[in-house]
Structures are given as structure tokens and as C-alpha cells.
Design brief:
Blueprint (H helix, E strand, L loop, with lengths): L12 H13 L12 E6 L5 H12 L3 E6 H4 L3 E2 L12 E2 H11 L2 E5 L7 H5 L2 H9 L4 E3 L7 H13 L6 E6 L9 H12 L3 E5 L8 H4 L3 E3 L2 H5 L4 E5 L21 H4 L6 E3 L12 H5 L3 H23 L1
Parallel strand pairs: 1-2, 1-5, 3-4, 5-6, 7-8, 7-10, 8-9, 10-11
Helix pairs in contact: 1-7, 1-13, 2-13, 4-6, 7-8, 7-13
Bound molecules: phosphoric acid mono(formamide)ester (CP).
Keywords: Amino-acid biosynthesis, Arginine biosynthesis, Transferase
Enzyme class: transferase
Pathway: Amino-acid biosynthesis; L-arginine biosynthesis
Length: 313
Amino acid sequence: MKNFTSVTDVEDPIALIKKAALCKKSPFENDHLGKHKTLGLIFFNPSLRTRLSTQRAAYNLGMNVIVMNIDKDSWKLEFEDGQIMNSDKAEHVKEAVAVMSQYCDLLGVRTFPGLVNRDEDYSEFILNQFIKYSSVPIISLESATLHPLQSLADMLTIDELKIVKPKIVLTWAPHIRALPQAVSNSFVEWCKASQADITVTCPEGFELSPEFMEGVKLEHNQKEAFKGADIIYAKNWSSFNDYGKIGQNLDHWIVDQEKMNLTNQAKFMHCLPVRRNLVVSDEVLDSSIVIEEANNRTYAAQAVLQEFLTSMK
Ligand code: CP
């Protein structure tokens, strides 16, 4: 694996899910692998789970960790080539990333989309600049369009339920702000790679990009989609078609107990953070598996770090 930015970087996604399960069973078994190795975690955007779980994973493997909130703590970066750098941007990404990779053996980066220019976001411009200028592997801590560490943890969580061929429903849910499509794109991508039975339910106009919707069942009637589901995975995302728009009068898409009663006693999942009683009712969230899901972030990250460390030996 050269980098970890998508399920397509992973030779055998099922094997990686199993490796994450083994990391959970024996978290310190490979604590020698990271000796004298340093992980850099670079954040352009806020994080609780990704930041803490990836640090925890690195510590479990005996690694050192450096964390930087690059938007707050470092020089403002220029990303365009050939610029006369006479604005407030004091450093070019070319030097910044090359220097970071002198200090670190692996680099993680979180870079959200602007949700204004779809082509730019879907070209993964910033992530690809990191890949271009880094001399060490890059791990996505959520990029403009994908969140593979989250999805790997989600797949582990689903695997642990031991349901044979579960009916998985990814449901759009309301929000007050425009959110990226990354978690949902990634969830669908990993479900497809795992040959899972996945249905997407969303209001008309909120379908994910054709690349991700291909081969996925689509149901615009949320209640119809919930019937017989074993797993309800809720997430808000802004429109791909009318790029970055949030829609109006869609609060009835909340996941509540009445809708959950239509399912096959489904488990409720969400990547967190989640807004209570907007995305999901208290009742549903309080009986969900979101904490177990968040716990699995550590072992997903650990499996990925372990892959890289093993290949460095
Ligand atoms: N789910 C997730 O990535 O959480 P954070 O944004 O808190 O890292």
C-alpha cells in the first residue's frame, strides 16, 4: 500500500477489516513495530475521534506522534504553482510537506472540501499536493470526498454484529449546515468492496455522485427503505448535483423510533459528531452502537498503521 486515501488503495479490504479485529483483540501485540517511528497528523479542520483514535493507535504500536493544527499553528500555505507569493501566504505546500516528511515516517492529513467548486473538491487538490510533495506515505484523516479510516471502522463494527448478509441502509438526515459527502461516499465505497447489500435513501436531488451510486440501490421513500433493514447508517450530506446546497423543509428526514420500528430491529450507526433531535432522536441514539463504532476507530487506524510499519521493516 503506497498511501491510504480510499478503499482502492487497499489490496484486500476484507483482510484489512480482519486485521483491525485482531488489533482489537490484542492491541499491544505489535508494540515493537513503531519503535523509533514517528507519525505526523496534520489537521486543516477540527476533529475529536480521528485525532484521538489515530494517536491512540500509534501509541499501541509504540510510535511517537506529532500533531499540528496547520490552519491555526503554522504558516498560511500557498498551493498554486508559479505564484508571486506577495499575499498573506508565507510558505508553499511544496516545501511545507517536503519538510514534514523529513520529521515523520508516516503523514496523516485532514482536509475538508470547500463545497463551492465541485471539480476542485472532487480532484482532491490538497490531498494530492500532499501525496506529490511527501517522501513518506500519506494517510487520509478525511479528505474532500472520502473518509476511509471511518469506513474501515464502520465495516469492523458491522462485521462484529455477525449478521449474515445484513441489509444496510444509508439514510440522508437533516442538518443546518452544508456538510461534505465524504463519509457517505466512503461508506458506500467500502460496502461495495465488501459486497454488502447497501441501499441509499435520500430526498430527490441528494443522490451521491454517479461514481458512488453505481451499483447501489436508491430509494427516495425513506420509510420504504427502512423496511426490514438490519443496519441504519445516518448521515447528512449536501447536494452533489446542486453542489453544496442543503435543501429546505427536510426536517422530517430525522431518524426516529417510529421509523426504526419499520426495520428488522436495526442497529443505528453514525460516524459522530451528531446533532441530537435534528439528525436522530434521543431515543434512537441512546440505544445505538455509535460508541462501539467510535471505539473501533482506534483499531481501524491501528490496522492501517501496522500495514505501513510492517512494510518498512
Ligand atoms: N467521525 C469523525 O471523523 O469524527 P471527528 O471529525 O471528530 O474526527
